[in-house]
Specification:
The complex is a heterodimer.
Chain A lengths: L2 E12 L2 E15 L6 E7 L3 E4 L5 H15 L4 E2 L6 H12 L3 H4 L1
Parallel strand pairs in A: 4-5
Antiparallel strand pairs in A: 1-2, 2-3, 3-4
Chain B lengths: L11 E4 L7 E6 L3 E7 L11 E9 L2 E6 L14 E6 L6 E3 L2 E12 L10 E8 L6 E3 L2 E2 L1
Antiparallel strand pairs in B: 1-6, 2-5, 3-4, 5-9, 6-8, 7-11, 8-9, 8-10
The chains are: A alpha+beta, B mainly beta.
Chain lengths: 103, 141
């Protein structure tokens, strides 16, 4: 798994020019296994990898491990916000019926 | 001409320190505004003459989420942290567009209960201006 970290900064205009202020997190880019291109998969904050919506939960641990290696500090895998299909399942579960019954 | 535009599917709200994970269904982003100051004089005709004030402000961002009883809820009045709204990745994007800055939760509405309806929670956070908020456009390969 190829991971690249980019510091996430806020560009702030001052009378002396534009200044980069740290947002205390890095943008996490991951190589797409099919295209070979790097694409954002989330952020790494103080202690956690924060995946983008729909990013597979199955990959979170591996990304967190790689982030920890590059940052030299412990990084836990955050919970991936559910994608659309998972969200529908949660909504259905909360509504008290299964996907089969909804069809 | 190629079609443009995209939906909100894949939009994400992340929290740098608390690493809160919400099953978000709707994100409402506060407007960035600046007041305009009236500098009209007795010689002014037709329309007011306006100059912009010094500081911009941004409205609260609101998240609507599916209530999951076992999930950690946002803490109103908790410590400020980096909160990031990330827009969906378009084809060809390397890093997605985002709005990020230090912020804290100001409002939490736990769900009401009603037969036959999904329970949703709502929370709002306010960027505090310490760092950012800054909108960064997506980068492409």
């Amino acid at each position: 798994m190829k991971i690249k970290l980019q510091p996430h900064v806020a560009l702030t205009k001052t009378p002396w020019g534009i200044v980069e202020k740290s947002l205390n997190q890095d943008i996490v880019l991951m190589e797409n296994s099919e295209t070979g291109k790097m694409v954002q998969c989330g952020y790494v904050g103080d202690t956690h990898f924060l995946p983008l919506s729909g990013f597979p939960q199955e990959l979170c641990d591996a990304v967190a491990t790689e982030c920890a290696k590059q940052l030299g500090k412990p990084v836990s895998a955050g919970l991936a916000p559910p994608g659309l299909e998972e969200l529908v399942a949660i909504v259905n579960a909360n509504a008290g019926y299964s996907e089969d019954e909804s069809e | 001409m190629a079609l443009i535009g995209d939906t909100g599917q894949g939009m994400t709200a992340t929290f740098g320190a608390s690493s809160l994970s919400l099953s978000v269904t709707e994100i409402t982003v506060g407007a960035i505004t600046i007041d305009m100051l009236d500098v009209s004089t007795l010689a002014t005709t037709d329309f007011q003459e306006l100059i912009s004030s010094d500081l911009k402000k941004i409205g609260k961002c609101k998240l609507k989420y599916v209530f999951v009883a076992s999930a950690t809820a946002p803490v109103v009045g908790g410590a400020a942290e980096t909160m990031t709204i990330t827009y969906p990745l378009f084809t060809g994007n390397v890093a997605a567009a985002n709005l990020a800055g230090t912020a804290q939760f100001t409002d939490l509405k736990l769900p009401d209960g009603k037969l036959g309806e999904v329970m949703f929670g709502e929370c709002e956070f306010q960027y505090n201006g310490d760092t950012g908020p800054t909108y960064t456009k997506a980068t492409t390969s």
